[in-house]
Amino acid sequence: MEYHPGGEDELMRAAGSDGTDLFDQVHRWVNYESMLKECLVGRMAVKSAVPKGMLPKSQPTNPLAKESPVSPSYDWFQTDSLVTIVIYTKQKDINLDSVIVDYQDDSFRAETIIKDYSYLIYIGLSHEIQEDFSVQVVENVGKIEIVLKKTENTSWTCLGHPLENHNLLIPKKDTGLYYRKCQLISKEDVTHDTKLFCLMLPPSTHLQVPIGQHVYLKLTITGTEIVKPYTPVSNSLLSEFKEPVLPNNKYIYFLIKIYPAGLFTPELDHLQIGDFVSVSSPEGNFKISQFQELEDLFLLAAGTGFTPMVKILNYALTNIPTLRKVKLMFFNKTEDDIIWRSQLEKLAFKDKRFDIEFVLSAPTSEWNGKQGHISPALLSEFLKRSLDKSKVLICICGPMPFTEQGIRLLHDLNFSKDEIHSFTT
Ligand code: FAD
Ligand code: NAD
Fold this sequence. Notes:
It comes from Pteropus vampyrus (Large flying fox). The chain is an alpha+beta fold. It contains 8 helices and 23 strands. The chain has 3 domains: 73-174, Immunoglobulin-like; 179-283, Elongation Factor Tu (Ef-tu), domain 3, CATH 2.40.30; 288-422, 3-Layer(aba) Sandwich (Rossmann fold), CATH 3.40.50.80. Helix 5 (307-319) links the parallel strand 18 (296-302) and strand 19 (325-332). The chain binds flavin-adenine dinucleotide (FAD) and nicotinamide-adenine-dinucleotide.
């Protein structure tokens, strides 16, 4: 028991019963026959040798039989060239978005997000490893396997020493932001003031930003670290537009408006290709389950508030079988401010479920589309359900006054809290 990497409690789950299934769930790759041979102390007698009166009065209880909050555990094993770390989350809805892995300065860190909690493996490794590693998730049992490559083919006697919060399940809000340095790969003009930035994650990071979540970018500006939130997007609305050279999940794209008098964005704009920016782990409270059985999706975006809508739009049109209608109302000051206008129009042409409506607050006299700010008249006309009782979700994002006013108007129009998702920090 002392040596079991998953701990005594994990072993006790199988005490007094046939533990084969439990063993297979977590150690399928282990040759248990050879282990059992080592542990065999003798065969159990067929007939009880204990006189009746000597049986213990009460059966020992399994300490984990009572349902306590499930804390993950981990285990590791090695071959000559590899070290595999296995995290048993004991959760079913775990996927590659749920785990963020970094190897920096000889420290290995794997953060698994389980609902509003974070389970951390954080170790100063005893030996060097190569930069790249693989991460796999066995979704039905919630098992995460991280395979590290040893730099030297030696046998490790231990993984290393524990660092802060190692092997603890703590509320996500208490974990603090963790950053890794990403390289600027490209920067393209999208409008007169908005650019598409492409950053590349280091090979020693596994990170996928879930739909609807944002990250923080960090730069040191005149000696002070400045941090601002940004929402990753896909590289285009029409996925066939560009073929990525590297696997897609090594790149993170951002649409960022440069404010000439702003604190952060001018510095970001001054970065050269090849320069580094620190990128945090993702945050946000949008849940993909909000899409379940969805029939009508309404997106209300103002200015760069369009950014969370990009992945939502891509995901919704490809992954929600019940979806009938997606409508985007996109508020901008002028025509020149509209991000990806022609892509949006092409998408609306290509996919009949998608409609786009542009609303300008400061149009030129040539504009014959919708004008003004968010208003009851605009919304009541726009938010028509495709069927009387269709399941609807409205996502709203933009400047704070826009979002706050929008939420008030949506409540006035009798949409419930569950039918509205607003993007704020
Ligand atoms: P700031 O210094 O904040 O200034 C912004 C503008 O306000 C400038 O024009 C400045 O002159 C003016 N200003 C500043 N202070 C004042 C003041 N006191 N009075 C009047 N005017 C003032 N932005 C994006 O472009 N893309 C995104 O994907 C994105 N995602 C976001 C996600 C979240 C969750 C949030 C909360 C924000 C997001 N933003 C995004 C906005 C982003 O975080 C920054 O706020 C934005 O880039 C401006 O940063 P800045 O430091 O350059 O400008
Ligand atoms: P902008 O100044 O170009 O304005 C775009 C439109 O927003 C305007 O045309 C108008 O219709 C509307 N608007 C602006 N101010 C308004 C007000 N006071 N009341 C009602 N409507 C108003 O916008 P921008 O410079 O692109 O700024 C986008 C904003 O979105 C930023 O504040 C940014 O922080 C926010 N944002 C938030 C997130 C998030 O996830 N929370 C993501 C991206 C952007």
